[in-house]
Automatic annotation (TrEMBL):
PANTHER family: ALANINE RACEMASE, ALANINE RACEMASE, CATABOLIC-RELATED. Substrate binds at residues 137, 311. Its EC number is 5.1.1.1. The modification N6-(pyridoxal phosphate)lysine is found at residue 39. This is Alanine racemase. Catalyzes the interconversion of L-alanine and D-alanine. May also act on other amino acids. GO terms for cellular component: cytosol.
Length: 376
């Protein structure tokens, strides 16, 4: 592939595929509002462009992690409804109010600070309440539900939504899912008439019992695998190409890369590709003679990574391409439609989420599928 911009790698984000994924999930979640999770720079795709594409597709509710991310979405989308998953940062109430951000409140301290600001301004500023049903991350304890209900009743305050988060939704038959569903339903009995949200991408795909009034897909929007052991139905959104720097001859018995971790068992042709762990191509994708590593798609064929991945370079075995060798400057697919990012993640012993959110390397970013976006 010829790289279309820059002299290094190229990250291509298909905003049309992103929009199609949101619409597909919205069909599955009929009867519930379909939000969009755009935290971590929209899973590495660029928060402003991704949020704008999702809004054009029909999304109106967005979830970010931090208030800074919320401000970025607000700048791009003046009319969006934005929830901040990390909650209310101490002393930051005025920022949330100015930017019309809704904190996902998860502790009595957060609640008291938010209610105090509402009393001070004589206005019931919107928020969501998060209850912990089994993650032991953020969230009110279940035994605080009555206390929270009684506290807001004294001020006639009601949250926009009550939510929790599934720990094991990527394994649909996991008993933890049913336990959390039951616990969350018991919490909701304390807040009659308040909308509820439990399902992430995997929860959305698991069943309608988990949908409630709003679903919050994240990884599935960006084409990643949400459910273990099932075919991933989502369209590919992110493709990363990196340039070939050199193709070289190597002989049987010679070693490849740092630590001489890989010894060649045949005369070989090796492509040195300009991407390394500094660009998010993780060192865990390295190989040795006992363990295969990651792969790249080169001139129509999957080619294995040989040896340890360096900071700036990765070596790929292109011997089996025969005369169809890449030339210096040509791009090879690191992941995309032919090299599934989740397959790469499996080899690295991690998840597609981490691979996507590590995309902060030295490459240009190219957006396609932008034709339906509003003119700037």
């Amino acid at each position: 592939m010829k790289l279309t911009s820059g002299l290094g790698g190229q990250l291509t984000v298909d905003l049309g595929a992103l929009a199609r994924n949101w619409r597909a999930l919205d069909k599955v979640s009929q009867g519930a509002l379909t939000a969009a999770v755009v935290k971590a720079d929209a899973y590495g795709t660029g928060i402003e462009m991704a949020a704008t594409a999702l809004y054009a597709a029909g999304a109106r509710f967005f979830f970010v992690a931090t208030p800074d991310e919320g401000v970025a979405v607000r700048t791009a989308l003046p009319n969006a409804h934005i929830f901040v998953l990390d909650g209310l940062y101490p002393g930051a109430s005025n920022l949330y109010i100015r930017q019309n951000l809704m904190p996902v409140i998860s502790s009595m301290e957060m609640l008291e600070e938010w209610l105090a600001k509402c009393v001070e301004r004589n206005e019931a500023y919107p928020s969501a309440f998060h209850f912990d049903t089994g993650m032991n991350r953020l969230g009110f304890r279940l035994n605080e539900a009555v206390v929270v209900r009684e506290r807001i009743a004294r001020l006639s305050y009601a949250p926009q939504m009550v939510m929790s988060h599934l720990a094991c939704a990527d394994v649909p038959n996991h008993e933890k899912n049913r336990t959390q569903l039951a616990l969350f339903s018991s919490v909701m009995n304390q807040f009659p008439g308040i909308p509820a949200s439990l399902a992430n991408s995997a929860g959305l795909m698991t069943g309608r019992d988990y949908h409630f009034q709003m679903v919050r897909p994240g990884i599935a929007l960006y084409g990643g695998r949400a459910v273990v052991g099932r075919r991933n139905p989502m369209a590919n959104v992110v493709t990363l190409h990196a340039p070939v720097l050199q193709v070289r001859e190597a002989r049987t018995g010679e070693t490849v890369g740092y630590g001489a971790a890989y010894s060649l068992s045949r005369d070989s042709r090796l492509a040195v590709v300009g991407i390394g762990y500094a660009d998010g191509f993780q060192r865990a994708l390295s190989s040795n003679n006992a363990r295969p590593g990651g792969k790249m798609f080169v001139n129509g064929r999957l080619c294995p990574v040989l040896g340890k991945i360096s900071m700036d370079m990765t070596i790929v075995d292109v011997t089996d391409l025969g005369p169809n060798l890449p030339r210096p400057g040509e791009g090879v697919e690191v992941f995309g439609p032919n090299v599934n990012i989740d397959d790469q993640a499996d080899v690295a012993g991690t998840i597609g989420y981490e691979m996507l959110t590590s995309l902060k390397g030295r490459y240009s970013r190219n957006y396609v599928g932008t034709g339906y976006l509003p003119e700037q």
